[in-house]
């Protein structure tokens, strides 16, 4: 694990020798790679173990192949129809990413308006909650009626799914600012815009990113739900087709690719978070280091 | 006027004729859900330019409220507050503010936290950077310019907050229990440094504190306040020499007299009036 020395606490230059605490340089690339490996090997090992169990169960013939296909047959299903899978994965990815992006823009804008206007917040919040509690699978057919069989109803469902966690986390983030910081800002003669861009918005990012990570996985679900209701392409369509044909290898392949899509999107958001909030990420990592030792 | 370290005089004498801060028969009432609370009542006060004034009193006596009035973050229910002869209406830019918590932006390094002041005021970049370097040298932050707040100790964080408050050379520095969260030893060091920095910059300082020793060591005058509703119980002049060595000053009879008097006032205050 990360060594305890990553908990840095700097002292005035004169005090260093006396207290035995020295300023440490920021971790270099090799150190960071080692830390990343230390963080990721466990989940990778668990995943590998699951695959081994899957393989063992099917190889031993404990479950009939038409119920659970072996990993080899699943892989074969993908490879033998690689163009088919590539196209449909691309469609779902497109719907998911576009839906996620729209949800971010709309969600953050809505949060900003709500934070700056209590009237808007009071009027909009119940509506938001209402939109959230409606089961998306129940209203998805309506979007098909309204928007047709193209990609747009799927994108709309993805937006709807991803929107809520983004708004909630953005509102919370924008509100958690230290009131003294805002008072300080007004004695600096800062305008609303300056205070927002230099203080409020950056301070809200840790909250926003946790919302984005939830939303990323929801967007995948949204796109697939949209495809279930009425589509002739996309991973949701692949799964429905395979289900109808009792083609479990294709079904399994579709499911795996779908999960992978969610995981990749989640990982991308986390990567962006580490890049945008190194101050926050580094601090969190020292927390982990001290608690796990 | 005291100047030093190549730092320009903190205020323009043409504008600042007369008192730096004038508080005239001020009353502050807060309305809470259940009742009206009078935080301050019949407070009058005059602070001369370049003076160091400490304010002590029991918790909740409205010491911090007093600073908020001077900065314009709060308006009095009645009475007048003037800064350099101008009525205070709305937040004032010509002050520096230091809170008990350093209130630093955790995504900015020490230097960039200090420069926030310059960015908000749209000060020229080059000059602001030089000034920030000077201040960091003066407060012993050299070598920590690029450290993030979570890498700094409490004392170091508070130094950064102090530099930020001094960056624009404010004629008046307001400090609200700036060392309240520090350990006793760090606090003493910070007291010595603040005294030196004040002597070098010549800024007018209003310091709210819970520590009687801190108030007497640092200030020219100590304002003792009564519990809520807060009002000025007595103003104690501190007749100590300008050059104050920490240990020696503490041993002076005048130090014992002033701290003793303040202790009497604060101890006797609940029944007095």
Textual characterization of the structure:
- With 293 residues, chain A is mainly α.
- Chain A has one domain (4-11, 87-292): MetI-like (MetI-like fold, Orthogonal Bundle), CATH 1.10.3720.
- In chain A, 80% of the residues lie in helices and 0% in strands.
- Chain A has helices at residues 15-19, 29-59, 71-80, 82-116, 118-133, 136-147, 152-175, 179-187, 192-229, 235-244, 248-276, 278-292.
- The longest helix of chain A has 38 residues, at 192-229.
- By secondary structure, chain B is an alpha/beta fold.
- Chain B folds into 2 domains: 1-94 and 171-273, P-loop containing nucleotide triphosphate hydrolases (Rossmann fold), CATH 3.40.50.300; 104-169, no CATH class.
- Chain B has helices at residues 63-71, 110-121, 125-138, 154-166, 184-201, 212-218, 246-251, 253-268, and strands at residues 21-31, 36-47, 52-56, 78-83, 86-87, 95-98, 172-176, 204-208, 221-225, 232-237.
- A 6-stranded mixed sheet of chain B has the order 6-7-8-3-9-10, with helices on both faces. A 4-stranded antiparallel sheet of chain B has the order 2-1-4-5.
- In chain B, a hairpin with a 4-residue loop joins strand 1 and strand 2.
- Chain B is globular, with a radius of gyration of 18 Å.
- Mean pLDDT of chain B is 84; it is low at 1-16 and 269-273.
- Classes of the chains: A mainly alpha (293), B alpha/beta (273).
- The A-B interface holds A 8-13, 23, 178, 180-181, 183-190, 194, 198-199, 202-203, 277, 279-280, 282-283 and B 68, 71-73, 91-93, 95-97, 99, 101, 103, 105-107, 116-117, 119-121, 140, 142-144, 147-148, 150-153, 155-156.
